[in-house]
Amino acid sequence: MWDTPGRLLRLLELLQQRREWGGAELAEKLEVSTRTVRRDVDRLRAIGYPVDARYGADGGYRLAPGTSLPPLMFDASEAVATVLALRCASTTADPLLAESTMRALTKLVGVMPRRLRGQVEALADQVQQTTAGTIRGSSPAPVPVETLTTAAVACRERRRTTARRGTQELLIDPLRLVHAGQGWYLVAYDVVEGTWGALRLDELTDVVATDRPAGVREPPADDLTAYVVEHLGTQIQQVRAVVEVAAPAAAVEPWIDAAFGTVEPRADGTCVVRCGADTLDAVARWLLLLDAELTIVEPVELAEEYAKLAQTVLRYAGSVQRS
Question: What is the CATH number of the domain that holds 151?
C-alpha cells in the first residue's frame, strides 16, 4: 500500500510522463479509487502544481503551465542528461547566461543521490568537447544516457570494458569521451586488435565496465580532442584538394573547420589550404566563401568543378523574370 506522500510523488511523476491521463488509468496505476485520485490532485494543487481536470465519463488530468515554477521531478536518466546539457552550456553559453546556468547546475547536482552524483562527476571529468566537424543540417546521433555514464565511469576508474558493435564483440580499455561533430566518441584501446581508436558511441551496445583494470599504456596523442577531430577528418575528406589563397592565414582560418582541412601561413602574407569533403563540388563551393583569389595546386579536376559552377552562375544571372 502507498503512504500518502509516496502516492503524491508517484502521481506527480505520472503526470509529468504524459500530456494527459484518464482518472481510471491513474487509479489503476496507483492502486486506489478514482475518488482518492481526485483528492490527491487537490493536494498537488494546494502545494503549487497546476493540474487541469476534465470531468465526466471521458474525464482526465494533465499538468498545465502555471504562474510559478514548482519543484520538478526527474528520473535518473533525465537528471544526468540535464546536468550534462547544463555543463556543456556553461562552457559555450553567452556570458550573460553563464552565471544562471552554473546556479541551476549547482542546485541540481546538490540534491542528487550519491550514485547519480558520481556518474555526473565522471562525465564532467572525462568528457572533452569541440564544435569541429559539425556539419550544418545534420542530426546528432542519439546515445542512451546509460551508455554515456557507463563509459564515463569506466574512463575515470580505468576499467576494462566489453561492448558490441553490430555483431562484433569488443574488449576495450576506455580512456576519454569526446563530443565532436555532433557525435560522441570513445577513445579506447582495442585489447584484441592491439590498436587505439575513436569509437562512435552510438554504434556501441551492451556497454559493461568489468572489474578488471585497464592496461597501463601511452595514450594515442597528447591532445585527445585533436585526435578525434583527425579521425573525423579521415571520414569526411573522401576527396582532397590543395589551393593557394591570396589572403593571410588569420583571415582564412575561421572558415576552415579542423576536421575539414588545415591552413599553412606563408611569409608573403598568403597561405595554403589543404582540405577535403565528400565531393569536389562541395570543396569548390566551400572555398568560394573565402572571398579571396585562389590558385589550384591539386587536383586539376577542381578546375573543372569551377567551370561547371561558372556555367550554373551564368545561367542564373540570365534567368531574371521580367514583367
Answer: 2.30.30
Q: How far apart are CA 16 and CA 26, in angstroms?
A: 12
What pTM was estimated for this model as a whole?
A: 0.64
Residue with cell 583494470: 213
> How far is residue 72's CA from residue 80's CA, in Å, rounded to a whole number?
14
Q: Is 283 helix (H, G, I), strand (E, B) or coil?
A: helix
Contact at 8 Å (CB) between 271 and 263? yes
41 closest CA partner among 56, 69, 68, 22: 22
Same-domain status, 203 and 253: no
Which domain range does residue 307 map to? 237-317
pLDDT tens digits for range 131-180: 766 666 566 678 888 898 899 889 999 999 999 999 999 999 999 999 88
Would you say residue 188 lies in a domain? Answer: yes
Is the CB of residue 188 less than 8 Å from the CB of residue 172? yes
- Say what the pLDDT of residue 117 is: 78
Cα–Cα distance measured from residue 10 to residue 19, given in angstroms and rounded to the nearest whole number? 16
In a domain, residue 187? The reply is: yes
Asked if 149 contacts 185 with a C-beta cutoff of 8 angstroms, the reply is no
User: Is residue 71 domain-resident?
Assistant: no
Across the range 106-116, mean pLDDT stands at: 73
What is d(CA 67, CA 193) in angstroms, rounded to the nearest whole number?
59
DSSP class of residue 218 equals -
Q: Which three cell numbers stand for residue 162?
A: 566489453
- Please tell me whether residues 86 and 53 are part of one structural domain: no
Q: Report how many domains make up the chain.
A: 4
Give me the amino acid identity at 103: R
Partner residues linked to 128 by β-bridges: 178
Strand 159-165 and strand 127-129: the pairing is: unpaired
**Prior bond to 299 cis, omega within 30?**
yes
- The answer to whether residue 152 sits within a structural domain is yes
